[in-house]
Amino acid sequence: MEIWVNPACSKCRTAVSALDEAGVDYTVRRYLEDPPTVEELATVVDRLGLEPWDLARPKEAREAGLTAIAKDAEHRTAWLAGLAANPRAIQRPIITADDGTTVIARDDETLGSILAH
């Protein structure tokens, strides 16, 4: 299992604590220090069943100028590149289970669903 975290984020700290309490073996990726590539982000959004703009944090995406990019198939790669270049704009925490199941674990229900893997 891998979790992408921003240590300053309370939702990330909650998720890490839950993984620890569950005794789950996981790897932490501090995605601000080790930003995901365009390819990694494409894989994550595909696993989530989302589009790249759905993965964006509204305020941070606006500050990075990403919201000026059209939200359509033609601009999908531009969104992925923009998120890779501006990792602060990526929703968090993102957890990928060993079976490939991926979630944005911002609430207890979603966090619990990934712990069941």
Give a description of the structure:
This is ArsC/Spx/MgsR family protein. Helix content is 41%, strand content 12%. It is an alpha+beta fold and 117 residues long. A four-stranded mixed sheet has the order 2-1-3-4, with helices on both faces. A hairpin with a 5-residue loop joins strand 3 and strand 4 (102-104). Helix 2 crosses helix 4 (76-85). The longest helix has 13 residues, at 10-22. It is globular and about 40 Å long. 30% of the residues are buried. The mean pLDDT is 96.
What distinguishing features does this structure have?
single chain; 117 residues; alpha+beta; Glutaredoxin; four-stranded mixed β-sheet
Write the layout of secondary structure elements.
Elements: E1 2-5, H1 10-22, E2 27-30, H2 38-48, H3 58-63, H4 76-85, E3 94-96, E4 102-104, H5 108-115
Parallel strand pairs: 1-2
Antiparallel strand pairs: 1-3, 3-4
**Coarse structural class:** alpha+beta
Share of helix, binned: 40-55%
Spatial strand arrangement across the major sheet: 2-1-3-4
| Quaternary structure classification | single chain
What name does the CATH topology carry?
Glutaredoxin
**CATH class category label:** Alpha Beta
**Uncertain segments of ≥5 residues (pLDDT<50)?**
none
Pfam families: ArsC
Protein name: ArsC/Spx/MgsR family protein
InterPro entries: Arsenate_reductase-like, Thioredoxin-like_sf
Organism: Mumia xiangluensis
